[in-house]
């Protein structure tokens, strides 16, 4: 028995035809977190989620959901998780409220315990409760998919690329709802290509590339791992050409008096960089630094193991 919301050990998948989609992937999703699963297209994220959903058979390894092994206790594992897939799947001739009632029926939720209207309210679809689902916009359908995944009140919710094709306003609404669910105790796993969102939303991030896990850390530590740092230095006189120095990785003149310097923070510190400027006889008037964002980290990690 594990305390993790999801625990994956040595998970592997080789598709018929020989494609190795997952290779020895192990990680835990701690309970109560918003956990980001990132990776480039084709990295294996959907395969992993489909294994958890019981839609794809793994070839090796183990996975537990809320302590239930997906092979030994598949029913308990299944009711512990709600999954929102990339594809929008529901019958267009049912209304949202009917869609949720049918789904609750499939999960054996007794009528008295169903909360279809509450769920529709939470995803801002209460005024569409009785409209035909096929008349909903793309964003509304996606929100209905989230509500559908929550009918059996699972402790873990997985969202596979939930905001692909959703406009910014709806995306914000969806994230607000994800945060509310998480605040109410639901562990959330999401895959996304929007790195800045993962950075903003997720407590912890795992990165998969070519079927292998290449990072699994608290978001803040992951961001801190970017080694490149940029400092913009404004000096007290016009500079004709940027000075060269071994501690600069790159230097560019971005105005008559502003130099943008990229340095490797594992090798030199900001003091040495500024010292190299003053050693050129230039006075420093202003300094600003740019923190690396997740995009930088992601690119440097995926590049280094490609
Ligand atoms: N049913 C299948 N049969 C054979 N190969 C498959 C199958 N499904 C996926 N693959 C391959 O396995 C690899 C991983 O695919 P997967 O869909 O898991 O990646 P992903 O990270 O979810 O990508 P995306 O973000 O594009 O959805 C890819 O090379 C894909 O082509």
From TrEMBL:
PANTHER family referenced in this protein's UniProt entry, alphabetically: ABC TRANSPORTER ATP-BINDING PROTEIN, ABC-TYPE MULTIDRUG TRANSPORT SYSTEM, ATPASE COMPONENT
GO MF annotation terms: ATP binding; ATP hydrolysis activity
UniProt keyword terms in alphabetical order: ATP-binding, Nucleotide-binding, Transport
Keyword Transport annotated: yes
Domain ABC transporter: 6-235
Name of this protein: ABC-2 type transport system ATP-binding protein
Entry annotated with the keyword Nucleotide-binding: yes
Family matches, as InterPro entries: AAA+_ATPase, ABC_transporter-like_ATP-bd, ABC_transporter-like_CS, ABC_transporter_ATP-binding, P-loop_NTPase
Top-level lineage group: Bacteria
């Amino acid at each position: 028995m594990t305390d993790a919301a999801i625990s994956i050990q040595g998970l592997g998948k080789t598709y018929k035809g020989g494609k190795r989609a997952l290779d020895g992937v192990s990680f835990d999703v701690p309970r109560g977190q918003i956990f980001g699963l990132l990776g480039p297209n084709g990295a294996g994220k959907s395969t992993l989620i489909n294994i958890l959903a019981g839609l794809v058979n793994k070839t090796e390894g183990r996975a537990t959901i809320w302590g239930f092994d997906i092979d030994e206790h598949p029913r308990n594992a299944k009711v512990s998780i709600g999954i929102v897939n990339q594809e929008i799947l529901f019958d267009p001739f049912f209304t949202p409220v009917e869609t949720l009632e049918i789904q609750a029926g499939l999960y054996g939720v007794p009528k008295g315990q169903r909360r279809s209207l509450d769920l529709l309210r939470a995803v801002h679809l209460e005024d569409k409760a009785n409209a035909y689902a096929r008349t909903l916009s793309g964003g509304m359908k996606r929100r209905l998919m989230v509500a559908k995944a929550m009918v059996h009140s699972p402790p873990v919710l997985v969202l596979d690329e939930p905001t692909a094709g959703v406009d910014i306003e709806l995306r914000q609404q969806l994230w607000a709802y994800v945060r509310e669910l998480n605040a109410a105790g639901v562990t959330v796993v999401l895959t996304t290509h929007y790195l800045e969102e993962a950075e903003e939303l997720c407590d912890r991030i795992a990165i998969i590339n070519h079927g292998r896990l290449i990072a699994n850390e608290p978001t803040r530590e992951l961001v801190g791992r970017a080694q490149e740092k940029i400092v913009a230095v404004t000096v007290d006189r016009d500079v004709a050409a940027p000075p060269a120095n071994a501690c600069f990785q790159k230097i560019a003149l971005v105005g008559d008096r502003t130099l943008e310097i990229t340095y490797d923070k594992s090798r030199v510190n900001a003091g040495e960089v500024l010292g190299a400027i003053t050693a050129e006889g230039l006075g420093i008037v202003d300094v600003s630094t740019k923190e690396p964002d997740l995009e930088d980290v992601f690119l440097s990690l995926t590049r280094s193991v490609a």
